[in-house]
Amino acid sequence: MTRPEHLSSLSRRTVLAGGAAAGALALSGGWSRVVAAPLITVESLTIDVNGKAAKVFAVKGPAGEGIFAKEGDRLAGAVLNASQTPAVMHWHGQIFAPADQDRARPDGGELAPGGTDQVDFLLTPGTHWMHSHTLSEQQLLAAPLVTREADAGEAQDVVVMLHDFSFRSPEEILAGLGGANAHGGHSMGGSTQGMAGMAMPGMDHAGHGMGAMGGMGGGMGGDMRAHANDVDYDAFLANRRTLADPEVVKVEKGGKVRLRIINGGTATAFFVSVPGLKPRCVAVDGSPCVPMEAEAFPLAQGQRIDLLVDIPASGGAFPVLAQVEASPRRTGVILATAGASVARIADTADRPQGLLDLTFEGRLSAGKPLAQRKADKVFPIMLGEEAGYRWTINGRTYGEGRPFALSPGERVEMTFMNPTTMSHPMHLHGRHFQVVGIGRRRFSGALRDTVMVPPHMPVTIAFDAGPKGEWFLHCHHLYHMATGMMAVVKVA
Ligand SMILES: [Cu+2]
């Protein structure tokens, strides 16, 4: 098995030893070397984007960006913040990390520059990731946290992390969203400018005039069309590179590849496709699903998708593309066999994609669904939007509302309702849930940790509460979360 260069391969022994001063690092070739603690380091670095220098973050494991482990491994060791900025790290998709080992918890806090944390938890199998839970997520403070399943077989793993990138700081972006040209400047009557702007990829700040109305439940009438892409990004990255200079991953003729794709974009959802091959989705958000083929796979912020592809015996070069929803803009990596000629792929497609919807979600079913059970608690959750780029859960921004109170082991159902004009990828910390309803239709859908809730389409999730602790439930659109769309689930 060839491993991507940017991933570290940790043996069980290595991970267990990670908390000590040094541990042995085993790479796929079978050799090992001694590496010093810490296990994970957050650092600043400068990368090149479109020929311009950009100051971003990196999350380094023992052998490069991210962590790549095997089922049964623990993540045990020190997390060092070697950057100049306080960090709030979240272990996204990890269900065995106790609440007090996740910095991103209601009573958590920043890991100060130079500060160290100790972590020790069993890794959750599957394609997961770790990322900042504050605005620095926009500056690429994120990395893969992939634990190879015991039954993953011989496929070659290729991890692709997607990002939306801006030369502006996240604070500037947020100010722009809340400024006079966004929500705050519009009256309740909406704006014709907004309607004209809505179909424009990447540029529909003006569309927010409608958003405020959406939050009022649609009672104002007018055009309620959904929109996306409220931030105008400078680039879209796959493994930190654009299609002008993409990563080219060497694959074998006749080989099998497992693409593990992570949407680390903060405000961008993508459609993933592999033209020329027939990808089969085998897992979403790290949890196995009944294998499913599609032309293009929707991937909202925070979500992951695992796609199996067979490389033809004749070889060739095959782009793995991620196209922004409601836009022709795209990014990606190239899979190429030895000697294949790699053509330049334009970073703009011939035509825009539509908005993400739940067509694919509705066809998915979990590999291991939850046991059928009547819910002990049912929560209707109304997602809302108010003037001034204020996003709410049940009418309240984070800090204003009471926690959702659960007891360990309770079967919980939450139905998200979205009368706003943007989609909300809703993410629950510390637990995987099953999608069990879309609109009025009940079904045994995918196991996930992040589900997209489009405008005017209720989505119901189910999960069994636990472990004890306080966990965030929030929208994974960074600027929605930062401006209020977050609540606490308290298991006690
Ligand atoms: Cu949102």
The poorly predicted ranges are 1-35, 179-223
Largest sheet: 7 strands, mixed
Average predicted local confidence, pLDDT:
86
Query: By CATH's scheme, which homologous superfamily of one domain applies?
Result: Cupredoxins -  blue copper proteins
Beta-strand residue percentage: 35-45%
Per CATH, the architecture of one domain is Sandwich
Terminal CA distance? 44 Å
Helix- and strand-based class?
Answer: mainly beta
The proportion of residues forming helix, as a percent range, comes to under 10%
| Bound molecule types | copper (II) ion
Radius of gyration: 21 Å
CATH class of one domain: Mainly Beta
User: Could you tell me the number of beta strands?
Assistant: 34
What's the number of helices?
6
CATH topology of one domain: Immunoglobulin-like
Structure report:
The protein is globular and about 60 Å long. The chain is built from 6 helices and 34 strands. Strands 23, 24, 26, 28, 29, 30 and 32 form a 7-stranded mixed β-sheet that branches. The model is unreliable at 1-35 and 179-223 (pLDDT under 50). The chain has 492 residues and is mainly β. Among the domains are: 12-150, Immunoglobulin-like (Sandwich); 377-491, Cupredoxins -  blue copper proteins (Immunoglobulin-like, Sandwich). 53% of the residues are buried. Bound molecules: copper (II) ion. Copper (II) ion binds next to loops. The site of copper (II) ion has 6 residues, from loops.
